[in-house]
Fold this protein.
Amino acid sequence: MIQTIVYGFTIGAILYFFSVGLALTFGTMRIINFAHGMVYAVGVYLFIAFLKVFDDSFLLALAASVIAMLPVAYIIERFIIRRLYGEGLDYAIIATYGVLLIGTDAIKMLWGTTSQPVNDPVGISIEVAEFGLPVYRIAIFACAVVLFLALRVFFKRSIIGRIVVAALEDSDGVRCLGLDVNKYFSIIFVLGSALAVLGGILYAPISSAEPYMGFHILLLAFAVVIVGGMGNLNGTFVAALALGMVMAITGRFWSQAANAMVFVVMALVLIVRSRKLDTD
Amino acid sequence: MNTPADIRGLSIRPAPRWKIFGQLALIAVGILLLATNIKLHWLTDFIIFFILVLSFDLLYGYMGHLSFGHMLYYGAGAYVTGLFLVNVGKNPIAALFAGLAVAAILSAVLGLIVMRTHGASFALINMAFNEIGFFIIRSPLAKFTRGDDGLSCSSAKLFGIIDLSDDVSAFLFVGVMLLLVFAFLQVLTTSPFGILVRSIKENEKRVAFFGYDTFRSKWIVFVVSSTLAALAGSIFTLVRGFLSPQVISPFGNVEVIFAVLIGGAGNLYGALIGGAIFMLIKNFLPVMIPELSKVVGVKLPQWEMWLGIILLIIVFAMRKGVVGVIRSQWHYRLRAARSAP
Protein backbone atom coordinates (compact mmCIF):
# COMPACT_ATOMS: atom_id res chain seq x y z
CA MET A 1 0.00 0.00 0.00
CA ILE A 2 2.84 2.40 0.80
CA GLN A 3 4.22 1.69 -2.65
CA THR A 4 0.88 2.59 -4.18
CA ILE A 5 0.73 5.86 -2.30
CA VAL A 6 4.26 6.77 -3.32
CA TYR A 7 3.42 5.85 -6.89
CA GLY A 8 0.33 8.05 -6.72
CA PHE A 9 2.37 11.00 -5.53
CA THR A 10 4.90 10.40 -8.30
CA ILE A 11 2.28 10.30 -11.03
CA GLY A 12 0.61 13.33 -9.50
CA ALA A 13 3.92 15.19 -9.49
CA ILE A 14 4.48 14.44 -13.19
CA LEU A 15 0.94 15.50 -14.02
CA TYR A 16 1.58 18.70 -12.12
CA PHE A 17 4.75 19.47 -14.08
CA PHE A 18 2.86 18.98 -17.31
CA SER A 19 -0.40 20.68 -16.36
CA VAL A 20 1.06 23.94 -15.06
CA GLY A 21 1.81 25.12 -18.58
CA LEU A 22 -1.55 23.95 -19.88
CA ALA A 23 -3.43 25.67 -17.06
CA LEU A 24 -1.50 28.90 -17.56
CA THR A 25 -2.11 29.01 -21.32
CA PHE A 26 -5.74 28.28 -20.76
CA GLY A 27 -6.08 30.84 -18.01
CA THR A 28 -4.25 33.62 -19.83
CA MET A 29 -5.13 33.05 -23.47
CA ARG A 30 -8.24 30.83 -23.33
CA ILE A 31 -6.53 28.33 -25.60
CA ILE A 32 -6.49 24.56 -25.27
CA ASN A 33 -2.92 23.94 -26.26
CA PHE A 34 -2.36 20.51 -27.80
CA ALA A 35 1.14 21.54 -28.83
CA HIS A 36 2.11 21.12 -25.18
CA GLY A 37 2.15 17.37 -25.74
CA MET A 38 4.50 17.82 -28.67
CA VAL A 39 6.97 19.88 -26.64
CA TYR A 40 6.84 17.23 -23.93
CA ALA A 41 7.49 14.29 -26.24
CA VAL A 42 10.16 15.95 -28.37
CA GLY A 43 11.90 17.12 -25.20
CA VAL A 44 12.14 13.56 -23.89
CA TYR A 45 13.54 12.27 -27.17
CA LEU A 46 16.10 15.06 -27.26
CA PHE A 47 17.04 14.09 -23.72
CA ILE A 48 17.70 10.51 -24.82
CA ALA A 49 19.86 11.83 -27.65
CA PHE A 50 21.76 14.12 -25.28
CA LEU A 51 22.35 11.24 -22.84
CA LYS A 52 24.62 9.66 -25.43
CA VAL A 53 26.43 12.94 -26.05
CA PHE A 54 27.06 13.62 -22.37
CA ASP A 55 28.11 10.08 -21.38
CA ASP A 56 24.90 9.30 -19.47
CA SER A 57 25.10 12.36 -17.28
CA PHE A 58 21.43 12.73 -16.30
CA LEU A 59 21.56 16.32 -15.11
CA LEU A 60 23.61 17.67 -18.02
CA ALA A 61 21.35 16.02 -20.57
CA LEU A 62 18.31 17.30 -18.70
CA ALA A 63 19.58 20.87 -18.73
CA ALA A 64 20.60 20.65 -22.37
CA SER A 65 17.26 19.36 -23.59
CA VAL A 66 15.24 21.87 -21.56
CA ILE A 67 17.36 24.68 -22.99
CA ALA A 68 17.07 23.24 -26.49
CA MET A 69 13.28 23.23 -26.27
CA LEU A 70 13.01 26.88 -25.20
CA PRO A 71 13.32 28.31 -28.73
CA VAL A 72 10.91 25.68 -30.06
CA ALA A 73 8.33 26.75 -27.48
CA TYR A 74 8.94 30.38 -28.32
CA ILE A 75 8.41 29.74 -32.04
CA ILE A 76 5.13 27.94 -31.35
CA GLU A 77 3.96 30.80 -29.17
CA ARG A 78 5.05 33.57 -31.49
CA PHE A 79 3.84 32.17 -34.79
CA ILE A 80 0.87 30.00 -33.86
CA ILE A 81 -0.61 30.71 -30.45
CA ARG A 82 -0.30 34.48 -30.62
CA ARG A 83 -1.94 34.67 -34.02
CA LEU A 84 -4.90 32.77 -32.63
CA TYR A 85 -5.26 34.90 -29.53
CA GLY A 86 -8.85 35.98 -29.00
CA GLU A 87 -10.22 33.75 -31.75
CA GLY A 88 -12.54 30.83 -31.37
CA LEU A 89 -11.55 27.86 -29.29
CA ASP A 90 -11.82 25.47 -32.22
CA TYR A 91 -9.21 27.01 -34.50
CA ALA A 92 -6.68 27.07 -31.70
CA ILE A 93 -7.35 23.41 -30.99
CA ILE A 94 -6.91 22.47 -34.62
CA ALA A 95 -3.76 24.49 -35.21
CA THR A 96 -2.06 23.22 -32.07
CA TYR A 97 -3.19 19.69 -32.88
CA GLY A 98 -1.54 20.10 -36.25
CA VAL A 99 1.67 21.02 -34.45
CA LEU A 100 1.31 17.93 -32.26
CA LEU A 101 0.90 15.71 -35.33
CA ILE A 102 3.93 17.24 -37.01
CA GLY A 103 6.00 16.73 -33.86
CA THR A 104 4.86 13.14 -33.42
CA ASP A 105 5.69 12.33 -37.01
CA ALA A 106 9.07 13.99 -36.74
CA ILE A 107 9.82 11.74 -33.75
CA LYS A 108 8.73 8.67 -35.68
CA MET A 109 10.92 9.69 -38.60
CA LEU A 110 14.03 10.48 -36.57
CA TRP A 111 13.89 7.89 -33.82
CA GLY A 112 11.51 5.19 -35.03
CA THR A 113 8.30 3.92 -33.49
CA THR A 114 9.72 1.51 -30.92
CA SER A 115 9.64 2.69 -27.33
CA GLN A 116 12.95 3.59 -25.76
CA PRO A 117 13.68 2.81 -22.13
CA VAL A 118 15.64 5.18 -19.90
CA ASN A 119 17.67 4.03 -16.90
CA ASP A 120 16.80 5.11 -13.39
CA PRO A 121 19.49 7.70 -12.57
CA VAL A 122 19.47 6.99 -8.83
CA GLY A 123 18.79 3.29 -8.81
CA ILE A 124 18.68 2.95 -5.03
CA SER A 125 15.70 1.78 -3.04
CA ILE A 126 15.14 2.45 0.61
CA GLU A 127 13.37 0.02 2.89
CA VAL A 128 10.32 1.42 4.62
CA ALA A 129 8.39 -1.10 6.67
CA GLU A 130 9.69 -4.00 4.56
CA PHE A 131 8.77 -2.34 1.26
CA GLY A 132 11.36 -1.29 -1.27
CA LEU A 133 10.82 2.32 -2.31
CA PRO A 134 12.88 3.71 -5.18
CA VAL A 135 14.52 6.93 -4.01
CA TYR A 136 14.01 8.36 -7.48
CA ARG A 137 10.23 8.40 -7.16
CA ILE A 138 10.38 10.20 -3.85
CA ALA A 139 12.80 12.67 -5.42
CA ILE A 140 10.28 13.43 -8.19
CA PHE A 141 7.63 14.22 -5.64
CA ALA A 142 10.05 16.43 -3.74
CA CYS A 143 10.80 18.28 -6.99
CA ALA A 144 7.08 18.90 -7.54
CA VAL A 145 6.66 20.32 -4.05
CA VAL A 146 9.68 22.56 -4.56
CA LEU A 147 8.29 23.67 -7.91
CA PHE A 148 4.91 24.43 -6.37
CA LEU A 149 6.49 26.57 -3.66
CA ALA A 150 8.80 28.25 -6.14
CA LEU A 151 5.89 29.10 -8.45
CA ARG A 152 3.95 30.48 -5.51
CA VAL A 153 6.84 32.77 -4.66
CA PHE A 154 7.25 33.65 -8.34
CA PHE A 155 3.62 34.64 -8.77
CA LYS A 156 3.40 36.45 -5.44
CA ARG A 157 6.71 38.31 -5.37
CA SER A 158 8.22 38.79 -8.81
CA ILE A 159 6.88 41.56 -11.02
CA ILE A 160 6.42 39.21 -14.00
CA GLY A 161 4.45 36.80 -11.88
CA ARG A 162 2.24 39.50 -10.46
CA ILE A 163 1.49 40.90 -13.90
CA VAL A 164 0.52 37.43 -15.09
CA VAL A 165 -1.72 36.84 -12.10
CA ALA A 166 -3.40 40.15 -12.80
CA ALA A 167 -3.77 39.21 -16.46
CA LEU A 168 -5.34 35.90 -15.47
CA GLU A 169 -8.02 37.91 -13.71
CA ASP A 170 -8.50 40.60 -16.33
CA SER A 171 -6.12 40.82 -19.24
CA ASP A 172 -7.84 43.89 -20.73
CA GLY A 173 -7.37 45.71 -17.46
CA VAL A 174 -3.65 44.98 -17.49
CA ARG A 175 -3.46 46.10 -21.09
CA CYS A 176 -5.06 49.40 -20.11
CA LEU A 177 -2.19 49.98 -17.68
CA GLY A 178 0.08 50.17 -20.70
CA LEU A 179 1.73 46.81 -20.20
CA ASP A 180 2.48 44.59 -23.16
CA VAL A 181 0.55 41.54 -21.99
CA ASN A 182 1.70 39.44 -24.94
CA LYS A 183 5.31 39.66 -23.84
CA TYR A 184 4.46 38.26 -20.44
CA PHE A 185 2.26 35.57 -21.96
CA SER A 186 5.24 34.57 -24.10
CA ILE A 187 7.45 34.25 -21.06
CA ILE A 188 4.83 32.19 -19.26
CA PHE A 189 4.28 29.97 -22.26
CA VAL A 190 7.99 29.21 -22.58
CA LEU A 191 8.20 28.60 -18.83
CA GLY A 192 5.26 26.21 -18.97
CA SER A 193 6.81 24.34 -21.89
CA ALA A 194 10.12 24.03 -20.06
CA LEU A 195 8.28 22.54 -17.08
CA ALA A 196 6.51 20.07 -19.35
CA VAL A 197 9.87 18.95 -20.77
CA LEU A 198 11.23 18.65 -17.25
CA GLY A 199 8.24 16.54 -16.19
CA GLY A 200 8.59 14.34 -19.25
CA ILE A 201 12.26 13.70 -18.59
CA LEU A 202 11.66 12.94 -14.94
CA TYR A 203 8.91 10.51 -15.93
CA ALA A 204 10.94 8.79 -18.67
CA PRO A 205 12.90 6.44 -16.36
CA ILE A 206 9.61 5.21 -14.81
CA SER A 207 7.80 4.65 -18.09
CA SER A 208 9.62 4.79 -21.40
CA ALA A 209 9.73 7.15 -24.36
CA GLU A 210 7.35 6.47 -27.25
CA PRO A 211 6.12 8.75 -30.05
CA TYR A 212 2.54 8.98 -28.77
CA MET A 213 3.46 9.78 -25.17
CA GLY A 214 2.37 13.39 -25.69
CA PHE A 215 -1.16 12.33 -26.64
CA HIS A 216 -1.61 10.14 -23.60
CA ILE A 217 -0.53 12.64 -21.00
CA LEU A 218 -2.52 15.42 -22.69
CA LEU A 219 -5.81 13.67 -22.05
CA LEU A 220 -4.95 13.18 -18.39
CA ALA A 221 -3.70 16.74 -18.07
CA PHE A 222 -6.98 18.08 -19.45
CA ALA A 223 -8.69 16.28 -16.61
CA VAL A 224 -6.26 17.88 -14.14
CA VAL A 225 -6.84 21.35 -15.56
CA ILE A 226 -10.62 20.93 -15.50
CA VAL A 227 -10.72 19.48 -11.99
CA GLY A 228 -8.31 22.07 -10.66
CA GLY A 229 -10.18 24.94 -12.25
CA MET A 230 -8.82 26.45 -15.44
CA GLY A 231 -6.02 28.86 -14.70
CA ASN A 232 -6.07 28.17 -10.97
CA LEU A 233 -2.52 27.31 -9.93
CA ASN A 234 -3.17 26.00 -6.43
CA GLY A 235 -6.11 24.02 -7.76
CA THR A 236 -3.90 22.48 -10.43
CA PHE A 237 -1.45 21.26 -7.81
CA VAL A 238 -4.13 19.70 -5.63
CA ALA A 239 -5.97 18.21 -8.62
CA ALA A 240 -2.76 16.72 -10.08
CA LEU A 241 -1.90 14.99 -6.81
CA ALA A 242 -5.48 13.87 -6.22
CA LEU A 243 -5.86 12.44 -9.71
CA GLY A 244 -2.44 10.82 -9.53
CA MET A 245 -3.59 9.13 -6.36
CA VAL A 246 -6.88 8.10 -8.00
CA MET A 247 -4.86 6.52 -10.82
CA ALA A 248 -2.48 4.70 -8.52
CA ILE A 249 -5.15 3.34 -6.21
CA THR A 250 -7.48 2.30 -9.04
CA GLY A 251 -4.54 0.79 -10.87
CA ARG A 252 -3.65 -1.32 -7.87
CA PHE A 253 -7.04 -3.02 -7.80
CA TRP A 254 -8.04 -2.85 -11.46
CA SER A 255 -5.21 -1.83 -13.72
CA GLN A 256 -7.25 -1.21 -16.89
CA ALA A 257 -9.57 1.18 -15.08
CA ALA A 258 -6.82 3.58 -13.94
CA ASN A 259 -7.22 6.04 -16.82
CA ALA A 260 -11.00 5.76 -17.04
CA MET A 261 -11.37 6.56 -13.34
CA VAL A 262 -9.65 9.90 -13.90
CA PHE A 263 -12.30 10.79 -16.45
CA VAL A 264 -15.08 9.65 -14.15
CA VAL A 265 -13.78 12.10 -11.57
CA MET A 266 -13.48 14.79 -14.22
CA ALA A 267 -17.04 14.24 -15.45
CA LEU A 268 -18.36 14.39 -11.87
CA VAL A 269 -16.50 17.61 -11.19
CA LEU A 270 -17.80 19.16 -14.41
CA ILE A 271 -21.35 18.12 -13.63
CA VAL A 272 -21.19 19.65 -10.18
CA ARG A 273 -19.52 22.79 -11.38
CA SER A 274 -21.06 23.17 -14.83
CA ARG A 275 -22.97 26.31 -13.92
CA LYS A 276 -19.89 28.10 -12.68
CA LEU A 277 -18.07 27.40 -15.94
CA ASP A 278 -20.72 29.12 -18.03
CA THR A 279 -18.61 32.22 -18.32
CA ASP A 280 -17.14 31.91 -21.81
CA MET B 1 -26.73 42.91 -52.44
CA ASN B 2 -24.22 43.55 -49.71
CA THR B 3 -25.40 40.83 -47.36
CA PRO B 4 -22.45 39.00 -45.81
CA ALA B 5 -21.84 35.47 -47.00
CA ASP B 6 -22.89 33.93 -43.69
CA ILE B 7 -26.36 35.44 -43.79
CA ARG B 8 -27.02 34.64 -47.43
CA GLY B 9 -27.84 31.03 -46.65
CA LEU B 10 -30.31 31.95 -43.92
CA SER B 11 -33.37 31.95 -46.12
CA ILE B 12 -36.62 31.39 -44.26
CA ARG B 13 -38.19 29.62 -47.21
CA PRO B 14 -37.51 25.89 -47.19
CA ALA B 15 -35.77 24.70 -50.32
CA PRO B 16 -38.22 23.46 -52.95
CA ARG B 17 -38.68 19.73 -53.36
CA TRP B 18 -37.13 19.46 -56.79
CA LYS B 19 -34.03 21.21 -55.54
CA ILE B 20 -33.43 18.53 -52.92
CA PHE B 21 -33.84 15.77 -55.50
CA GLY B 22 -31.44 17.61 -57.78
CA GLN B 23 -28.89 17.80 -54.97
CA LEU B 24 -29.30 14.13 -54.17
CA ALA B 25 -28.75 13.27 -57.83
CA LEU B 26 -25.63 15.42 -57.83
CA ILE B 27 -24.23 13.55 -54.82
CA ALA B 28 -25.12 10.21 -56.36
CA VAL B 29 -23.23 11.18 -59.52
CA GLY B 30 -20.28 12.35 -57.44
CA ILE B 31 -20.12 9.06 -55.56
CA LEU B 32 -20.42 7.05 -58.76
CA LEU B 33 -17.52 9.09 -60.14
CA LEU B 34 -15.49 8.13 -57.07
CA ALA B 35 -16.60 4.52 -57.61
CA THR B 36 -14.90 4.44 -61.00
CA ASN B 37 -11.53 5.11 -59.35
CA ILE B 38 -11.72 3.52 -55.91
CA LYS B 39 -12.45 -0.05 -54.92
CA LEU B 40 -16.05 -0.45 -53.81
CA HIS B 41 -14.93 -1.95 -50.53
CA TRP B 42 -13.07 1.25 -49.66
CA LEU B 43 -15.77 3.50 -50.99
CA THR B 44 -18.25 1.88 -48.62
CA ASP B 45 -15.99 2.90 -45.74
CA PHE B 46 -15.82 6.40 -47.21
CA ILE B 47 -19.59 6.71 -47.31
CA ILE B 48 -20.02 5.49 -43.73
CA PHE B 49 -17.50 8.13 -42.73
CA PHE B 50 -19.47 10.74 -44.71
CA ILE B 51 -22.58 9.97 -42.68
CA LEU B 52 -20.59 10.37 -39.47
CA VAL B 53 -19.12 13.66 -40.67
CA LEU B 54 -22.57 14.94 -41.68
CA SER B 55 -23.90 14.15 -38.21
CA PHE B 56 -20.99 16.01 -36.63
CA ASP B 57 -21.48 18.96 -38.96
CA LEU B 58 -24.98 19.41 -37.56
CA LEU B 59 -23.58 19.71 -34.04
CA TYR B 60 -20.42 21.67 -34.77
CA GLY B 61 -20.93 23.39 -38.10
CA TYR B 62 -24.54 24.44 -37.61
CA MET B 63 -24.75 24.84 -33.85
CA GLY B 64 -21.13 25.73 -33.12
CA HIS B 65 -20.61 23.14 -30.38
CA LEU B 66 -17.23 21.48 -30.77
CA SER B 67 -17.36 18.04 -29.18
CA PHE B 68 -14.43 15.72 -28.52
CA GLY B 69 -16.70 12.80 -27.82
CA HIS B 70 -18.77 12.16 -30.90
CA MET B 71 -17.25 8.72 -31.39
CA LEU B 72 -19.01 7.58 -28.22
CA TYR B 73 -22.33 7.53 -30.09
CA TYR B 74 -20.82 6.06 -33.26
CA GLY B 75 -19.30 3.30 -31.16
CA ALA B 76 -22.45 2.82 -29.10
CA GLY B 77 -24.52 2.36 -32.26
CA ALA B 78 -21.97 -0.04 -33.68
CA TYR B 79 -21.64 -2.13 -30.53
CA VAL B 80 -25.33 -2.29 -29.68
CA THR B 81 -26.07 -3.44 -33.23
CA GLY B 82 -23.27 -5.97 -33.03
CA LEU B 83 -24.33 -7.33 -29.65
CA PHE B 84 -27.94 -7.51 -30.85
CA LEU B 85 -26.85 -9.57 -33.86
CA VAL B 86 -24.83 -11.93 -31.70
CA ASN B 87 -27.19 -12.36 -28.77
CA VAL B 88 -30.74 -11.59 -29.89
CA GLY B 89 -31.41 -12.12 -33.56
CA LYS B 90 -29.96 -11.85 -37.02
CA ASN B 91 -32.47 -9.40 -38.47
CA PRO B 92 -30.40 -6.41 -39.70
CA ILE B 93 -33.25 -3.88 -39.52
CA ALA B 94 -34.09 -4.79 -35.92
CA ALA B 95 -30.40 -4.62 -35.01
CA LEU B 96 -30.08 -1.23 -36.67
CA PHE B 97 -33.03 0.18 -34.76
CA ALA B 98 -31.75 -1.31 -31.51
CA GLY B 99 -28.47 0.55 -32.04
CA LEU B 100 -30.27 3.80 -32.83
CA ALA B 101 -32.61 3.50 -29.86
CA VAL B 102 -29.88 2.83 -27.32
CA ALA B 103 -27.71 5.64 -28.67
CA ALA B 104 -30.67 8.02 -28.66
CA ILE B 105 -31.45 7.21 -25.03
CA LEU B 106 -27.79 7.49 -24.06
CA SER B 107 -27.39 10.86 -25.77
CA ALA B 108 -30.70 12.08 -24.34
CA VAL B 109 -29.50 11.37 -20.80
CA LEU B 110 -25.93 12.62 -21.26
CA GLY B 111 -27.23 15.57 -23.28
CA LEU B 112 -28.99 16.87 -20.18
CA ILE B 113 -25.57 17.15 -18.57
CA VAL B 114 -23.26 18.17 -21.41
CA MET B 115 -25.54 20.75 -23.01
CA ARG B 116 -25.33 22.85 -19.87
CA THR B 117 -21.66 23.51 -20.60
CA HIS B 118 -20.03 25.67 -23.26
CA GLY B 119 -16.79 25.99 -25.15
CA ALA B 120 -13.85 24.15 -23.67
CA SER B 121 -15.89 22.45 -20.96
CA PHE B 122 -18.29 21.08 -23.56
CA ALA B 123 -15.47 19.72 -25.69
CA LEU B 124 -13.71 18.13 -22.74
CA ILE B 125 -16.69 16.69 -20.87
CA ASN B 126 -17.67 14.88 -24.05
CA MET B 127 -14.14 13.59 -24.28
CA ALA B 128 -14.40 12.34 -20.69
CA PHE B 129 -17.61 10.43 -21.46
CA ASN B 130 -16.04 9.02 -24.60
CA GLU B 131 -13.03 7.79 -22.61
CA ILE B 132 -15.36 6.16 -20.10
CA GLY B 133 -17.33 4.49 -22.89
CA PHE B 134 -14.12 3.27 -24.53
CA PHE B 135 -13.05 1.77 -21.23
CA ILE B 136 -16.44 0.14 -20.58
CA ILE B 137 -16.40 -1.55 -23.98
CA ARG B 138 -12.84 -2.77 -23.54
CA SER B 139 -12.85 -3.92 -19.95
CA PRO B 140 -16.00 -4.50 -17.89
CA LEU B 141 -18.04 -5.61 -20.90
CA ALA B 142 -15.19 -7.63 -22.40
CA LYS B 143 -17.13 -10.82 -21.72
CA PHE B 144 -19.70 -9.70 -24.31
CA THR B 145 -17.67 -7.47 -26.60
CA ARG B 146 -14.54 -9.66 -26.54
CA GLY B 147 -12.50 -6.53 -25.74
CA ASP B 148 -9.48 -5.88 -27.90
CA ASP B 149 -9.83 -9.18 -29.75
CA GLY B 150 -12.86 -7.82 -31.58
CA LEU B 151 -16.37 -9.10 -32.05
CA SER B 152 -17.49 -10.79 -35.22
CA CYS B 153 -21.19 -10.49 -35.89
CA SER B 154 -22.80 -11.53 -39.13
CA SER B 155 -26.31 -10.49 -40.04
CA ALA B 156 -29.05 -12.16 -42.04
CA LYS B 157 -30.00 -10.88 -45.47
CA LEU B 158 -31.71 -7.51 -45.60
CA PHE B 159 -35.44 -8.05 -46.37
CA GLY B 160 -34.46 -11.66 -46.99
CA ILE B 161 -32.81 -10.84 -50.34
CA ILE B 162 -29.94 -8.38 -50.02
CA ASP B 163 -26.70 -9.88 -48.77
CA LEU B 164 -24.80 -7.07 -47.02
CA SER B 165 -21.49 -8.89 -47.02
CA ASP B 166 -21.44 -8.60 -50.79
CA ASP B 167 -19.47 -5.53 -51.89
CA VAL B 168 -21.92 -4.21 -54.48
CA SER B 169 -25.07 -4.54 -52.39
CA ALA B 170 -23.27 -3.13 -49.34
CA PHE B 171 -22.22 -0.15 -51.43
CA LEU B 172 -25.76 0.42 -52.69
CA PHE B 173 -27.15 0.08 -49.15
CA VAL B 174 -24.78 2.67 -47.63
CA GLY B 175 -25.24 4.91 -50.66
CA VAL B 176 -29.00 4.99 -50.18
CA MET B 177 -28.50 5.62 -46.47
CA LEU B 178 -26.20 8.54 -47.21
CA LEU B 179 -28.77 10.10 -49.54
CA LEU B 180 -31.50 9.67 -46.91
CA VAL B 181 -29.34 11.29 -44.22
CA PHE B 182 -28.36 14.13 -46.53
CA ALA B 183 -31.98 14.79 -47.50
CA PHE B 184 -33.03 14.72 -43.84
CA LEU B 185 -30.31 17.18 -42.83
CA GLN B 186 -31.03 19.42 -45.80
CA VAL B 187 -34.68 19.67 -44.77
CA LEU B 188 -33.80 20.08 -41.10
CA THR B 189 -31.20 22.80 -41.58
CA THR B 190 -33.36 24.90 -43.90
CA SER B 191 -36.44 24.55 -41.69
CA PRO B 192 -37.34 27.26 -39.17
CA PHE B 193 -35.85 25.04 -36.48
CA GLY B 194 -32.60 24.87 -38.45
CA ILE B 195 -32.50 28.65 -38.66
CA LEU B 196 -33.03 28.82 -34.91
CA VAL B 197 -30.10 26.44 -34.41
CA ARG B 198 -27.85 28.55 -36.61
CA SER B 199 -28.93 31.64 -34.69
CA ILE B 200 -27.87 29.92 -31.47
CA LYS B 201 -24.42 29.55 -32.98
CA GLU B 202 -24.29 33.27 -33.74
CA ASN B 203 -25.58 34.53 -30.42
CA GLU B 204 -27.30 32.30 -27.94
CA LYS B 205 -28.21 35.07 -25.51
CA ARG B 206 -30.18 37.00 -28.08
CA VAL B 207 -32.07 33.91 -29.18
CA ALA B 208 -32.98 33.25 -25.55
CA PHE B 209 -34.01 36.89 -25.26
CA PHE B 210 -36.52 36.38 -28.06
CA GLY B 211 -38.22 33.86 -25.84
CA TYR B 212 -36.92 30.65 -27.35
CA ASP B 213 -35.95 27.81 -25.05
CA THR B 214 -32.38 27.49 -26.30
CA PHE B 215 -31.51 24.62 -23.98
CA ARG B 216 -34.30 22.50 -25.43
CA SER B 217 -33.23 23.23 -29.02
CA LYS B 218 -29.61 22.48 -28.24
CA TRP B 219 -30.58 19.25 -26.54
CA ILE B 220 -32.68 18.17 -29.53
CA VAL B 221 -29.81 18.88 -31.92
CA PHE B 222 -27.42 16.95 -29.71
CA VAL B 223 -29.72 13.92 -29.64
CA VAL B 224 -30.37 14.04 -33.40
CA SER B 225 -26.69 14.44 -34.18
CA SER B 226 -25.70 11.60 -31.84
CA THR B 227 -28.38 9.32 -33.23
CA LEU B 228 -27.18 9.95 -36.78
CA ALA B 229 -23.65 9.12 -35.64
CA ALA B 230 -25.03 5.90 -34.19
CA LEU B 231 -26.69 5.22 -37.54
CA ALA B 232 -23.27 5.40 -39.18
CA GLY B 233 -21.91 3.03 -36.54
CA SER B 234 -24.76 0.56 -36.97
CA ILE B 235 -24.33 0.56 -40.73
CA PHE B 236 -20.64 -0.08 -40.25
CA THR B 237 -21.44 -3.15 -38.14
CA LEU B 238 -23.98 -4.48 -40.63
CA VAL B 239 -21.67 -4.04 -43.59
CA ARG B 240 -18.40 -5.16 -42.05
CA GLY B 241 -19.57 -7.80 -39.60
CA PHE B 242 -16.58 -7.20 -37.34
CA LEU B 243 -16.04 -4.74 -34.49
CA SER B 244 -13.02 -3.72 -32.47
CA PRO B 245 -12.87 -1.08 -29.72
CA GLN B 246 -11.26 1.14 -32.33
CA VAL B 247 -14.76 2.23 -33.41
CA ILE B 248 -15.32 3.94 -30.06
CA SER B 249 -11.78 5.21 -29.56
CA PRO B 250 -11.65 8.92 -28.66
CA PHE B 251 -8.86 9.43 -31.18
CA GLY B 252 -11.40 9.04 -33.96
CA ASN B 253 -13.01 12.36 -33.00
CA VAL B 254 -10.12 14.32 -34.36
CA GLU B 255 -10.56 12.76 -37.79
CA VAL B 256 -14.20 13.82 -37.87
CA ILE B 257 -13.40 17.35 -36.75
CA PHE B 258 -10.74 17.65 -39.43
CA ALA B 259 -12.98 16.34 -42.15
CA VAL B 260 -15.62 18.94 -41.30
CA LEU B 261 -13.04 21.73 -41.24
CA ILE B 262 -11.26 20.75 -44.42
CA GLY B 263 -14.54 20.94 -46.29
CA GLY B 264 -15.94 23.93 -44.45
CA ALA B 265 -18.04 23.82 -41.29
CA GLY B 266 -21.74 24.57 -41.40
CA ASN B 267 -22.23 23.31 -44.91
CA LEU B 268 -23.48 19.87 -45.89
CA TYR B 269 -21.50 19.76 -49.12
CA GLY B 270 -18.49 20.87 -47.14
CA ALA B 271 -18.91 17.86 -44.89
CA LEU B 272 -19.05 15.53 -47.89
CA ILE B 273 -16.10 17.07 -49.70
CA GLY B 274 -14.07 17.35 -46.50
CA GLY B 275 -14.85 13.74 -45.69
CA ALA B 276 -13.74 12.67 -49.15
CA ILE B 277 -10.52 14.68 -49.01
CA PHE B 278 -9.70 13.41 -45.55
CA MET B 279 -10.31 9.77 -46.47
CA LEU B 280 -8.23 10.16 -49.62
CA ILE B 281 -5.37 11.65 -47.58
CA LYS B 282 -5.66 8.95 -44.98
CA ASN B 283 -5.91 6.03 -47.38
CA PHE B 284 -3.64 7.05 -50.21
CA LEU B 285 -0.86 9.10 -48.64
CA PRO B 286 0.57 6.14 -46.67
CA VAL B 287 0.67 4.21 -49.95
CA MET B 288 1.97 7.04 -52.08
CA ILE B 289 4.67 8.40 -49.79
CA PRO B 290 7.03 5.39 -49.85
CA GLU B 291 6.84 5.33 -53.63
CA LEU B 292 7.40 9.06 -53.84
CA SER B 293 10.36 8.72 -51.48
CA LYS B 294 11.91 6.22 -53.86
CA VAL B 295 11.53 8.68 -56.71
CA VAL B 296 12.91 11.64 -54.78
CA GLY B 297 15.59 9.58 -53.05
CA VAL B 298 14.90 11.14 -49.63
CA LYS B 299 12.88 9.52 -46.86
CA LEU B 300 9.72 11.63 -46.75
CA PRO B 301 7.62 12.09 -43.61
CA GLN B 302 4.54 9.97 -43.07
CA TRP B 303 0.98 11.14 -43.66
CA GLU B 304 0.47 12.52 -40.16
CA MET B 305 2.94 15.32 -40.79
CA TRP B 306 1.21 16.27 -44.04
CA LEU B 307 -2.10 16.28 -42.25
CA GLY B 308 -0.62 18.57 -39.61
CA ILE B 309 0.63 20.96 -42.29
CA ILE B 310 -2.77 20.93 -44.03
CA LEU B 311 -4.43 21.77 -40.73
CA LEU B 312 -2.16 24.76 -40.19
CA ILE B 313 -2.91 25.95 -43.73
CA ILE B 314 -6.65 25.63 -43.09
CA VAL B 315 -6.47 27.60 -39.88
CA PHE B 316 -4.27 30.38 -41.20
CA ALA B 317 -5.34 30.67 -44.81
CA MET B 318 -8.61 28.87 -45.52
CA ARG B 319 -10.98 29.36 -42.60
CA LYS B 320 -14.07 28.48 -44.59
CA GLY B 321 -12.67 25.25 -45.96
CA VAL B 322 -12.55 24.08 -49.55
CA VAL B 323 -16.23 24.68 -50.19
CA GLY B 324 -16.07 28.13 -48.62
CA VAL B 325 -13.22 29.15 -50.92
CA ILE B 326 -14.99 27.81 -54.00
CA ARG B 327 -18.18 29.58 -52.97
CA SER B 328 -16.61 32.96 -52.39
CA GLN B 329 -14.75 32.69 -55.70
CA TRP B 330 -18.05 31.83 -57.37
CA HIS B 331 -19.86 34.81 -55.89
CA TYR B 332 -16.95 37.08 -56.73
CA ARG B 333 -16.96 35.97 -60.38
CA LEU B 334 -20.72 36.26 -60.54
CA ARG B 335 -20.69 39.79 -59.22
CA ALA B 336 -17.86 40.78 -61.53
CA ALA B 337 -19.77 39.39 -64.50
CA ARG B 338 -22.91 41.29 -63.48
CA SER B 339 -21.23 44.62 -62.96
CA ALA B 340 -19.36 44.36 -66.24
CA PRO B 341 -21.39 45.99 -69.01
